[in-house]
Specification:
TIM Barrel; 2 domains; alpha/beta; five-stranded mixed sheet; homodimer
Chain lengths: ~500, ~500
Amino acid sequence: MAKNEQVAEAAGNPRRRIPTYELLDEDGLDALERHADWILEKVGVEFRGDAEALGLFRSAGASVDGECVRFEPGLARHLCSTAPSEFRMHGRDPRHTATIGGDHVVFSPTYGPPFVTDLDRGRRYASLEDFENFVKLTYATPWLHHSGGTICEPVDVPVNKRHLDMVYAHLRWSTKPFMGSVTSPDRAEDSIEMARLVFGSDFLEHNCVIQANINVNSPLVFDDVMSGALKAYARANQGCVISPFIVGGAMGPVTLSALLAQAHAEAMVGIALSQLARPGSPMVYGNFLTTMDLRSGAPTFGTPEAVLATYAIGQLCRRLGLPLRCGGHYTASKTADAQAMQESADAMAAAVLAGANFVHQAAGWLEGGLTIGYEKFVMDADHLGMLQRTMQGLGIDENSLAAEAYREAGPGITFLGTAHTLANFETANHPSTLPDTNSFEQWTEDGGLDMQQRANARWKQVLADYEPPAIDPSVDADLRSFVAEKKASMDDAWY
Amino acid sequence: MAKNEQVAEAAGNPRRRIPTYELLDEDGLDALERHADWILEKVGVEFRGDAEALGLFRSAGASVDGECVRFEPGLARHLCSTAPSEFRMHGRDPRHTATIGGDHVVFSPTYGPPFVTDLDRGRRYASLEDFENFVKLTYATPWLHHSGGTICEPVDVPVNKRHLDMVYAHLRWSTKPFMGSVTSPDRAEDSIEMARLVFGSDFLEHNCVIQANINVNSPLVFDDVMSGALKAYARANQGCVISPFIVGGAMGPVTLSALLAQAHAEAMVGIALSQLARPGSPMVYGNFLTTMDLRSGAPTFGTPEAVLATYAIGQLCRRLGLPLRCGGHYTASKTADAQAMQESADAMAAAVLAGANFVHQAAGWLEGGLTIGYEKFVMDADHLGMLQRTMQGLGIDENSLAAEAYREAGPGITFLGTAHTLANFETANHPSTLPDTNSFEQWTEDGGLDMQQRANARWKQVLADYEPPAIDPSVDADLRSFVAEKKASMDDAWY
């Protein structure tokens, strides 16, 4: 077994064993739910260019006016009720199969940036090589349990062929669960077909082996690309994360209560459509909810308002009983500096206490998601390890109360040499490795490197140590043939 | 009114309007309380060289064996019961008078480092000029409400005279509450006497105008310097923060449950002594509780274990009903890099949700407290502003639900230009200023500075803008005379 597989196996898909944080009381949650119902009844949600979706909603009792769908209070919530509260998301290696929902938590890397950066080469357009590197880095860390989707845009590959190379990379260079394409229904179907080649048609029909991220075109719009991909995945019984994408002040009002009600409304409607397409298809209640610097118009991250919204959206989701996507190592910073980790740490701490089950954007995110950083990636992964230790909570038992240690040490006597310390020191504290805990003198002798510089050495080492997981050669050949044939059937498109 | 006073006045002493986070259930808290009682009954706490303290405990019903004091279960808790749950801590300017306890929160700067660092000059021994600079920086920020104590050690002043210059600086260059000396009972008395010159003897007798930080010599020891200073402040009806100082594996066992029980036991015993010296004297239940890298022996900060311990100590303190000190912008990093703010953000987020009423070490801390950094100071202060916004919570009312905005915007239409956005955008989001939210192009044009570099310019600007608060010239003359006479009465001592 490869070294990195051993590491990955050791960690698995963790469970949150600490309570969630309840920011709002029941009255507050009732008010937000009522307002979501008001938005759905009085304002409505548009499904643009998707007559089939409009028909499904009409037949389910919603009122359809042109492309606008309106819901009686409670209807959207009712339509979500067939979605499972928890489901299994299969990896190519069964040891990487994850549970999504309940108190289980899955972390996955950044999604979507066209740019990549590292300390050596600076910021540049991302390439397929970068994409493959991040698949490998994700595979190699025990703290990410999902290979993600468009970890970065492989800008050197034609737009209409990228999904083939990305899905192949996830399936070939990793064995963790992954996400397929949503940029058109055809590309969604291609993604699902490639998963069928690996998992088999029968298995796929009854199990979730591929997911997709469906961004709502907030405010209150689903375009036919998104609703089409959503229906394609749902009908194949595969999973989607339905993510209202709201930067307060632009895609929603600038005040938090409204943002939350709108996000709740949009997520419910997306999940409702999935259940109309195929009842029981495995969905995640998602959101991308943040603030804006209203002077510059730029989105901001890890802000107090975003933190508060994260806690509240977790509570709203728990009322629905669905798996929750929220959070990420979010930052507006252009470099992996103090700002980057301050904003990222604040955003992620809130996501964990909010009860996130699925955390997209958990590693590598910079510049509001426009860039993925190699150094930031390994910093975030290390920090995820810490959060996963925090999630284990504080066990109280005879050993941890350490009565014997007090009998041995006592007032004024160090505990360093007690039998209890010797028996427990290797397991007592989480072994994070990127933060420097040495003396100033030792740190100076080691070059006086900051964490970003140390992270630069780290990601190179992880890539150098990477060993690809085994794959059945005939399956690999099928995948390669599929990609080659599809590519041969299309002209290059660059838009 | 000076510019910085206006800013300071605007913020005041904030209240936490969000719930605390309850990590442990009642059974867990019971178990920790029982174990604290077990430690106090079976192991005991030593008061070294302080026969008076031993006598006070004996007369209160504790069992004294040599210098070791043991308590029947419940006795220490009972002796704490006369300490107030909430008290007023007066500033020289009444606008800076703070409430300590309940849901009120006070942030104060770093305490104790012998070194100082900044990007221009690097790490060096701190001087009185540095000390005065940090008093001024603290005065000028609205996000710190307390001037602290030994913000850094003015190493260029003889050890036996430092307290005079430090107390003078707090009283002259700031009007916020502050801490006096604890390094000997004489120096504690000098500190209190200087406060008397400003506030008047009568006022001081009935009001808390000076505080001290009393570190327990953990494990389970108070030396006579600490117990002597504690009694001096308590008898003058002034406040102390009683801080068990435990790095797990050294001053206590390596497991969290034991650390928590021990910290609880030590804090209760210190507060008990204060109440025996003067019932009703205003105390804070403190702690300095963290982990160690057991490979290097160095303390570590913002770790998962320290975060969990912070939540739990808050719960134990709430059971006693006393004001809680915990947290800080802790880090082991030597520089204000990604590590520094990652660890600091994690530590502070936990302190806020743990219900901290008094946060020492809230600005400037680096290198496990050995160094205070100018850049780190202004970063931390800015981050404190964010946390104070988070503490205000999420209000739900007609305006924040923004029904009108939906009537104006609706599906697919941006909210940027709605009347609701225009009416709310200036107040909706906390105006943090150090994080960069510009585009990559704008950031590059501005020099591509990381947050540490931006902070370098910030602290220089704040010092340049600083305007000293007014002081009655006769009071200032009295203070200067006191300092001069005391200094003249002593030879310089450098150890």
